[in-house]
Amino acid sequence: MRRLLPAAAVVAALALVISACGGGGETAAPAPSVSDPSKITGEVTWWDTTRPDSEGPTFQALIKEFEAAHPGIKVKYVNVPSDQAQNQFQTAAQAGAGAPDVIRSEVAWTPQFASLGYLQPLDGSRAVDNEADFLAGPLSSTKYDGKTYAVPQVTDTLALIYNKRLLKEAGHEEAPKTVAELKQTALDVKAKTGAEGLALNVDSYFLLPFMYGEGGDLLDVANKKIVVNSPANVRAVETVADLISSGAAPKPATTESYANAMTALKEGEAAMIYNGPWALSEIYQGKEFEDKDNLGIAPVPAGSVKAGAPTGGWNLAIYAGSKNIPAAYEFVRFMTTAEAQAKIAKDISLLPTRTSAYANPDVQGNADVAVFKPIMDTAVPRPWIPEGGQLFQPLLEGYQALVGGDSAPADMLKKVDEQYRGIMKGWS
């Protein structure tokens, strides 16, 4: 999603697709049901990928609730940075040693891990409770080859997040609704307040709203076509380049741009960024948003075709080689209940994946969730295919080359297209 797999890991992932072995060489069969779940014992190691300072405490509090309700099961909590977890899990699963019982898997990783045989199938297990209650988009990311390999924990998308005070001082009472308005608003902020208008994050996921806005995409899955090098995407990348060259957005660094953009927003040095609900708990720690009412959230501005942001989120998946499958089932079941999702939404504004959770007063009382929910309803689905997680690195490298002045938009996308053809074998 928003933090990407290193290039070396992409190469490793391609090799693993061909030669999966070790702990995940063959798809595991579902573990037998137990007659009395309260009698289950064991220790479940969980790799959590949230930020340990602003999000981790909420999940650790849920673990305490789980252990109190399941005295025979202990949970070993391990926080693994989200930009390292994918590669670390693959390495451990391939070796057959060191993988956790449960991993918080980014939606794009789930079909890849499943295709490699690293995940426990969950159909018919206690891990999946009332599947019909899950939103269709998040649920679709848990499927591979007709089977279920994860349970949706939280979902997300991108929005325009902005400083109301700075926009008002620049003469704008409302957030921009189009990319053209975004550019003008950003220029007005810079001219009238001295702050930067828009802080960009050089990340593939954050480039997608511009592509979707022009009617572009990365793949045409139904027809097995690579469409990243399209006129629509060229227009989108040209738009981003223009935001930078015009001064509407300062030239971002090619590394640490996410942290830089967040800091600029929190400190009042930039008026607008693109980001998701996962960022809100950190943003509210900034001096500009001690008064939460100063934070504005709006749909991403529309391009010439539409407004569109990508579907993201996180699933809970069980390692196929786990020695604690029944205990892992109970843990996943508990952590994805409507009640658990409501607590997460109340505390840190992450969006539930269950329909019923949105009726919970704690969810309805969170204004940030209320704003993001309709944005989420219009989010653009990503391709839930094993190679989906490998598409971001080439696009990231192209984005970095563009920002660094080493590639023009058309040349950038041509190179990305060439790299995609090395990943998507047999696609036209």
TrEMBL record:
PROSITE patterns: PROKAR_LIPOPROTEIN
Stretch forming the signal peptide: 1-22
InterPro entries linked to this entry: SBP (IPR006059)
GO cellular component: ATP-binding cassette (ABC) transporter complex, substrate-binding subunit-containing
Pfam families: SBP_bac_1
Keyword Isomerase: no
Sequence similarity: Belongs to the bacterial solute-binding protein 1 family.
Official protein name in the record: Extracellular solute-binding protein
Organism field: Nonomuraea cypriaca
